[in-house]
C-alpha cells in the first residue's frame, strides 16, 4: 500500500527551489545589475536593498524546506533505517542543509556590514573599490565567495533529492531487501 506525502514533499522541494533559485538570481541578476549603477554608492545600496527585500521570502523558503525535510524523514523513517543508501543520503543532505543555512546566515551578516558602509561605494556589490575601508573590502570579498557557495550547496541538495526519489523505486527497495 502506497502512502502519499505530497504536502511535505512539496514544502521540501518548493522551499529548496526558492532557496537555490533566489540565491543564484541574486548573485547573477541583482548583484550584476547593481554593479551597473552609475554612482558607486548606489551599487552597494541597491544590492543591499534588494537582498533585504528578499530575506523574508528566503527565510520562508528555508523554513518550508526544513519542515518538508523533517516530514519526509519522519514519513520515510523505516526506509531510511533499512536502506543504507537512503540513510547515507539523508545524513549527507542534512549536513549540507545545515552548511547552506550557515552560509546564508553568514551572508546576511556580511551584507549588513556592506550596507552599513555603503556610502563608500564599490566597483560592484561584491567588488570593493580602491578607496574601500579594510572592513568593507573584507566583507565584500567574503560575500563574493559566499554568494556562489550557497547556490552550489543548494544545487547539490537538489541533485541529492532526485537521487532519493530514485532510491524509492521498487527495484531499489527490492535490491535492499534481497541484500539483507
Short description:
With 180 residues, the protein is mostly helical. Helix content is 82%, strand content 0%.
Main beta-sheet annotation = none
Measure the end-to-end span: 22 Å
Shape: elongated
* Low-pLDDT sequence parts: none
Number of helices: 6
Q: Give the number of DSSP strands.
A: 0
Helix content: over 70%
- Structure classification: mainly alpha
**Which series of helices and strands comes N to C?**
HHHHHH
Average pLDDT metric: 91
Strand content: under 5%
Q: How large is the radius of gyration?
A: 20 Å
Structural features:
180 residues; mainly alpha; single chain; elongated
Q: Can you walk through the features of this model?
A:
α1 packs antiparallel against α5, α2 runs antiparallel to α4 and α4 runs antiparallel to α5. The longest helix has 36 residues. The model has no long low-confidence stretch (mean pLDDT 91). The chain is mainly α and 180 residues long. 82% of the residues lie in helices and 0% in strands. It has six helices and no strands.
Topology:
Elements: H1 6-34, H2 40-75, H3 77-82, H4 84-116, H5 134-167, H6 170-179
Helix pairs in contact: 1-2, 1-5, 2-4, 4-5
Amino acid at each position: 500500500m502506497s502512502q502519499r506525502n505530497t504536502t511535505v514533499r512539496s514544502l521540501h522541494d518548493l522551499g529548496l527551489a526558492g532557496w537555490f533559485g533566489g540565491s543564484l538570481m541574486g548573485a547573477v541578476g541583482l548583484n550584476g545589475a547593481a554593479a551597473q549603477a552609475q554612482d558607486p554608492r548606489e551599487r552597494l545600496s541597491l544590492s543591499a536593498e534588494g537582498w533585504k527585500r528578499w530575506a523574508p521570502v528566503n527565510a520562508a523558503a528555508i523554513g518550508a524546506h526544513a519542515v518538508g525535510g523533517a516530514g519526509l524523514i519522519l514519513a520515510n523513517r523505516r526506509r531510511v533505517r533499512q536502506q543504507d543508501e537512503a540513510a547515507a543520503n539523508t545524513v549527507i543532505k542534512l549536513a549540507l542543509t545545515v552548511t547552506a543555512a550557515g552560509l546564508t546566515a553568514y551572508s546576511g551578516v556580511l551584507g549588513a556590514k556592506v550596507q552599513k558602509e555603503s556610502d563608500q561605494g564599490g566597483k560592484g556589490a561584491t567588488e570593493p573599490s580602491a578607496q574601500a575601508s579594510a572592513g568593507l573590502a573584507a566583507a565584500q570579498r567574503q560575500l563574493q565567495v559566499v554568494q556562489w557557495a550557497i547556490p552550489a550547496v543548494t544545487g547539490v541538495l537538489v541533485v541529492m533529492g532526485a537521487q532519493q526519489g530514485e532510491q524509492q523505486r521498487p527495484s531499489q527497495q527490492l535490491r535492499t531487501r534481497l541484500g539483507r
